[in-house]
Design a protein that fits this description.
The complex is a heterodimer of chains A (about 400) and B (about 575). By secondary structure, chain A is mainly α. Chain A has 2 domains: about 110 residues, no CATH class; about 210 residues, Orthogonal Bundle (MetI-like fold), CATH 1.10.3720.10. In chain A, about 75% of the residues lie in helices and about 0% in strands. Chain A starts with 13 loop residues before the first helix and ends with a helix. The mean pLDDT of chain A is about 85. Chain B has 3 domains: about 100 residues, no CATH class; about 100 residues, no CATH class; about 220 residues, MetI-like fold, CATH 1.10.3720.10. Chain B has a two-stranded antiparallel sheet with strand order 1-2. In chain B, helix 23 packs antiparallel against helix 24 and helix 26 runs antiparallel to helix 27. Chain B is elongated. Chain B starts with 15 loop residues before the first helix and ends in a 10-residue tail after the last helix. The N terminus of chain B is likely disordered. Classes of the chains: A mainly alpha (about 400), B mainly alpha (about 575). The interface between A and B is large, with 101 and 94 residues.
């Protein structure tokens, strides 16, 4: 993915390099300084250290010695970090050393301009990179909560937070006991079993009915299409608490509350909008002349559907099914209302666990669920690309 | 080529050419299809067949959604106005209260107390009085305990009469004599023959008894049927309730029973003589109720019953907007009892803040993604989609782990020395926690629609603006931003709709100050059991959401919703 070099790079004046590095060093020094007691001292020391390093690297040693200088910086910072704060310090120090080694040359050699168009003003360059940093921060916000859960699930203590042993990378601070609990405790295994019993059946119902309806909706002359669409999408829009309330009232009248089929029906309805949306999106690119050709050659409608149309829209159907599956697998509000103690699903178990904060087994469950969602996401992405490719092959 | 068999004009059957010629010849006539029918009708038929086929494909799902989703919602709407419990539980009282003027504030007539005596007695036997008590308790505090107390104390009124009749003749407290007095002889024979299997022969009143002893007959019939249907006991073996004795006293003192000559006539005549004697002790129903609880002789309880006696009420909706029904009409509640207005306001306010934070965080990301080469954009898109695919509970528990006092963020801040160990920030169980967690959870719903709009904006416009001398800011604000507004609109409505109905996340990280209206609805369903109020709150929320949904459909179109890029 190497981009072409758009702008010839040149070595920057040492005043500029030292200045930028001093600012960055001061910023890093602020954090280290406050952690050690004095923020001001940290800023000054960081700025001075970085300015000197930049000067030495640029003016005294020069460009040719880039590799040894960066490795040296990395090693020295790691050792200093280790002396301060054992293993965590080693890692933090190493990271700092690696980053500043790269940063000195990136700034000093003017490499930051390489991939930008030549006519940008310095202000625009600064904005470009500040914008990237801002976006990086937002991505960190998006991803951190999911990442943080994973190491915590290996906690040897029954805490929801990092213990000193964990931070020191002491093997005694880690254990698989929450996973053991998750896999052996009947409360959790039953919950998993119930979820796995409900979700596939609900998915099957919503996919089969939803696909048929999506095919019907994609025909050119459907009376009241907008209204029908609005009704079929409404389970996604109506707040879950309202759906749950209504279902609780209505299903208790017809004796479905607390039964397996009650939950399955409710989850099937909640999954339908996702199936409709994905399958209709796939059908938009479907070439109708293919079915006409099949009919022309003597295939009956059922054969046409299964041999011609189905294989082409299958990626959309499967990703709709995955959406429906995750909806059911992740649904808790309706289950809380119309479920019963014997029919506790995994999300129910997690919800009660979170409310009463019983044990970090929840975090083990969460880590496993993240794993599952990564698999599902990958599957959907692959299907989407496949579908796009297919659409590209068929005209229209 | 044009031999006789294929020459168009020689073929008798329909061909397109023939039809065209025919149409040409009959210049004023309608255009004909190949088979000679007018083209318009033929097209219509084909169109109709197509429509029916499409509808047949949609029908199963539509039916399924209507039954298992729309019907429950309709049921909830119905529950928000339904109020049949009052009339069902105390029908006589409701009927007697029709001419009671609640606004005047006096006590109702003795007949109302009489009706209430019978109603409460039967309701207490069926154990329905506590349900009515809790229903009225939503409107008037204390009604629940009043009804519970009355269910226990209502026996006292009848016992006055029961004891005196019993002292006169022990048979008045026996099952068999009562059954002979009230029951149809055929029924008695059938009941005696009943061997304990199958259904009991249903109790029948003797043909003439209802005319001589109307009240007694009525209450004995209710007693007998109740014994048969609810308890599974034979009325021949169960002594009647004290309410039957009260009815007997009323009948005997009101009418002349000397003409009676059926079974147990002497027993009845003796009772009539006793009632007529000056020593016979009586108690008015009003005094009886006053003995049970002084609250019964205060006007408030009667005003409440009167106000809530119709089958349908706007009371739940009034409660949901902090008002209450009074005899003078709907009034705002006292300042300190108004909670729902505040809750609705807070729900709206927090949803707005969440939507705004999603715009602030989502816009740069969507901009970045739509301006990067697609290979890089797809890679970064995974970082957006992974939270979208991750279980809601996982993300909520993650935020609980991050935000709590001993949580990751506080630990980091303490370690960095930015916050003292004894002054850790309170970031959970308040509005801040809810807003942060929900912004994170709903951010993908903002980014995806924005991204799909922004990736259609051509780069050339921006370059054109710059080459014409616009500054960076002008280019963005006057050229790029207006084109991205539809994306912001779509994302904002979606995020706002999703956030005002949120339940799980506020419940776990919201504490008491960060909860939404949904949490209150759940509380009324599962804890306070005030289902009508829950339904009314739900209906209001539903209306808000549907208005937004309609707007969304208008602006974006529901078939344009995209999932996962």
């Amino acid at each position: 993915m190497a981009e072409a070099i758009l702008t010839p790079i040149e070595k920057k004046p040492i005043g500029f390099t030292a200045g930028v590095l001093a600012a960055a060093g001061g910023f890093a020094g602020l954090f280290i300084g406050t952690a050690q007691g004095s923020g001001l001292l940290g800023i000054l020391a960081g700025a001075a250290l970085m300015a000197v390093l930049a000067f030495v690297a640029m003016q005294v040693l020069g460009e040719a010695l880039e590799k040894p200088v960066r490795w040296g910086l990395f090693a020295v910072a790691a050792v200093v970090g280790y002396l301060f704060n054992a293993i965590p310090g080693l890692i933090m120090g190493g990271l700092f050393g690696w980053f500043f080694g790269w940063f000195i040359y990136w700034i000093g050699m003017g490499r930051y301009r390489a991939h930008l168009v030549p006519y940008l003003t310095p202000g625009q360059v600064l904005w470009h990179y500040s914008f990237r940093v801002l976006c990086g921060a937002i991505f960190v916000f998006l991803i951190t909560p999911i990442i943080v859960v994973m190491p915590l699930s290996f906690n040897a203590q029954d805490f929801f937070t990092f213990t000193p042993e964990m931070l020191a990378f002491d093997p005694a601070g880690y254990s698989l006991k929450h996973y053991r609990d998750f896999l052996t405790n009947p409360e959790w295994t039953n919950a998993v079993k119930n979820s796995l019993m409900v979700a596939p059946v609900a998915t099957l119902i919503s996919v089969s009915l939803g696909t048929l309806a999506a095919i019907g909706l994609s025909q050119s002359h459907v009376p009241g299409k907008r209204a029908i669409m609005a009704i079929l999408i409404s389970p996604m829009i109506v707040p879950l608490i309202i759906s749950a309330t209504g279902m609780y009232f209505f299903y208790s009248k017809i004796g479905l509350v607390g039964t397996y089929w009650g939950i399955v029906l409710a989850h099937a309805v909640l999954g339908i909008p996702f199936v409709i949306i994905t399958v209709t999106a796939t059908l938009v690119g479907f070439d109708r002349s293919l079915t006409r050709a099949a009919a022309n050659m003597g295939a009956n409608p059922v054969t046409t559907f299964f041999k011609v149309q189905m294989p082409l829209i299958l990626p959309g159907v499967i990703s709709g099914g995955l959406f429906a599956f995750i909806t059911s697998f992740d649904e808790v509000v309706v289950v809380l209302f119309i479920g019963s103690a014997e029919l506790q699903t995994l999300p129910w178990q997690m919800f009660t666990g979170l409310r009463e904060q019983i044990s970090p087994t929840i975090l083990a469950a969460a880590t496993i669920l993240v794993g599952i969602s990564i698999c599902l996401l990958t599957a959907v992405e692959i299907l989407r690309r496949r579908s796009e490719k297919m659409r590209g092959m068929s005209p229209g | 080529m044009t031999d006789a068999a294929t020459e168009p004009d020689k073929i008798a059957g329909p061909t397109p050419d023939n039809a065209l010629r025919a149409a040409d010849k009959a210049e004023t006539g309608p255009v004909l299809a190949a088979d000679g029918t007018p083209l318009k009708r033929s097209l219509n038929r084909a169109l109709r067949a197509q429509k029916i086929r499409a509808l047949m494909l949609i029908a199963p799902l539509l039916l399924f959604v209507l039954i298992s989703f729309i019907a429950p919602i309709g049921d909830m709407l119905f529950r928000s106005v339904e109020n049949q419990i009052v009339r069902d539980t105390i029908p006589r009282t409701v009927a007697a209260l029709t001419d009671y003027d609640a606004a005047a504030g006096g006590l109702p007539r003795e007949e109302v107390f009489e009706a209430a005596y019978y109603d409460v007695f039967y309701a207490a036997e069926r154990k329905e009085h506590t349900r009515l008590g809790s229903r009225l308790n939503y409107e008037q505090t204390g009604a629940s305990s009043l009804f519970r107390k009355s269910g226990r104390g209502i026996e006292d009124i009848g016992e006055v009469y029961q004891d005196q009749f019993e002292d006169l003749n022990g048979d008045w407290d026996e099952a068999r004599p009562w059954a002979e007095l009230m029951g149809d002889p055929d029924w008695i024979a059938a009941q005696e023959a009943w061997d304990g299997n199958g259904t009991m022969p249903a109790f029948e009143l003797r043909s003439d008894i209802a005319e001589i002893l109307p009240r007694t007959a009525e209450s004995y019939r209710i007693f007998a049927r109740f014994m048969q249907n609810e308890e599974g006991d034979s009325p021949l073996e169960e002594e009647p309730w004290s309410v039957v004795h009260t009815a007997l006293y009323q009948d005997v003192s009101a009418g002349d029973v000397s003409g009676y000559s059926g079974p147990r006539a002497d027993m009845l005549q003796a009772a009539a003589a006793l009632v007529a004697s000056p020593d016979f002790e009586t108690i008015s129903f009003r005094d009886g109720f006053a003995d049970i609880d002084e609250d019964w002789v205060e006007p408030e309880v009667w005003q409440t019953i009167k106000t809530y006696s119709p089958d349908y009420t706007s009371g739940y909706f009034l409660n949901a907007v902090d008002m209450q029904k009074t005899p003078e009409g709907p009034m705002l509640r006292d300042e300190d009892e108004r909670i729902y207005g505040l809750l609705f306001q807070r729900t709206m306010f927090m949803s707005l803040v969440i939507t705004l934070s999603c715009i602030m965080l989502g816009y740069p990301i969507a901009y970045l993604l739509s301006n990067l080469p697609s290979s890089k954009a797809n890679l970064l898109m995974i970082l957006v989609l992974l939270p979208f695919w991750t279980s809601l509970l996982v993300r909520t528990s993650a935020w609980k782990v991050m935000l709590q006092q001993q949580g990751v963020i506080n630990d980091t801040l303490v370690w960095l020395g930015l916050v003292a160990d004894d002054a850790r920030l309170t970031m959970i169980n308040n509005q801040f926690g809810t807003i942060v967690a929900m912004t994170h959870i709903l951010l993908p719903f903002m980014i995806l629609p924005m991204y799909s709009v922004m990736s259609t904006i051509p780069q050339s416009y921006v370059r054109a603006a710059k080459s014409l001398g616009a500054t960076n800011w002008t280019t963005f604000w006057r050229v790029y931003f207006p084109q991205s507004v539809p994306g912001i609109g779509a994302g904002s409505i979606l995020v706002f709709i999703l956030s005002i109905g949120y339940y799980i996340t506020p419940e776990i990280v919201g504490g008491t100050s960060g909860i939404f209206i949904s949490n209150r609805i759940a509380y009324h369903i599962s804890s306070s059991l005030n289902w009508g109020l829950a339904a009314a709150l739900g209906t209001i929320l539903l209306v808000v959401v549907l208005v937004l949904y309609w707007a969304y459909d208008r602006i974006v179109g529901i078939d344009n919703v995209k999932l996962g890029g």
